[in-house]
Fold:
Amino acid sequence: MRHHTPPGQIAPHIPTDDWQRAQATGQPIVIVVNDPQPAFPWQRLFIPFAIAGAAALGTWGVVAALAWLLDVAAHTATVIAGAAGPIGIGGITLRLARGKHT
Structure:
């Protein structure tokens, strides 16, 4: 079974002859790692704000679409009621829309 070290946790390689010389003489081994880290990990901050912004824009889009659909439905109902004229059942007449006054 192979052992895989996770990314970012890789130890630097020490040449064998340097390691054996250090073991034989007791000399310390100095490992210099030149891996500058950014001052602030912007990705940690950017991703949540991007998700929240996308959710907010999506919510506003849904609200705008629902308002437009309700507006269209109201206009459609008004046109249908105006075209149908008065509806009467059993002597009771109900006017669904006002007539045009000239």
